[in-house]
């Protein structure tokens, strides 16, 4: 499989994504759950569905969207991810990157909450680390743009 097809194909919508997991302090998990419950309770008439809220323990930073429409493509992408992971960890210097969540937005932004299918939070990297995070994301993007064999050594 040419992994670049996993990004560029116009024949199918996105089916998978590459992400970096986020680790949250317990108080942030509580705040996110409280916000979700409040938003659902307060805005009952707007048709907001609880499915647009991610569970705090699966919060992540999306790096790249993929179009993997069959098992062969999924397996090839998984192989690329397995092989690129050490390079990503090296780019992050095996240290955490600290971020601050800055508000909430609906995706896609179609003007009304009922048309949204996901809520996301823009972020700000704090305490340095932006260059490490950009390098890690760039490695993922290059590997899927070039194909599965040319970027991982």
From TrEMBL:
Residues 14-139 form the A-kinase anchor protein 7-like phosphoesterase domain. Pfam families: AKAP7_NLS. InterPro entries: AKAP7-like_phosphoesterase, ASCC1, Cyclic_Pdiesterase. This is A-kinase anchor protein 7-like phosphoesterase domain-containing protein.
């Amino acid at each position: 499989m040419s992994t670049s097809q996993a990004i560029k194909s116009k024949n199918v919508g996105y089916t998978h994504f590459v992400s970096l997991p986020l680790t949250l302090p317990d108080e942030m998990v509580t705040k996110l759950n409280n916000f979700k419950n409040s938003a659902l309770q307060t805005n009952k008439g707007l048709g907001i569905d609880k499915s647009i809220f991610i569970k705090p323990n699966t919060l992540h930073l999306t790096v790249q969207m993929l179009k993997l429409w069959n098992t062969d493509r999924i397996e090839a992408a998984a192989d690329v991810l397995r092989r690129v992971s050490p390079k990503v960890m090296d780019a992050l210097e095996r240290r955490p990157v600290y971020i601050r969540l800055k508000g909430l937005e609906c995706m896609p932004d179609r003007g009304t909450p009922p048309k949204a299918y996901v809520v996301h939070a823009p972020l700000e990297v704090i305490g340095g680390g932006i260059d490490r995070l950009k390098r890690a994301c760039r490695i993922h993007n290059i590997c899927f743009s070039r194909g599965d064999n040319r970027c991982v050594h």
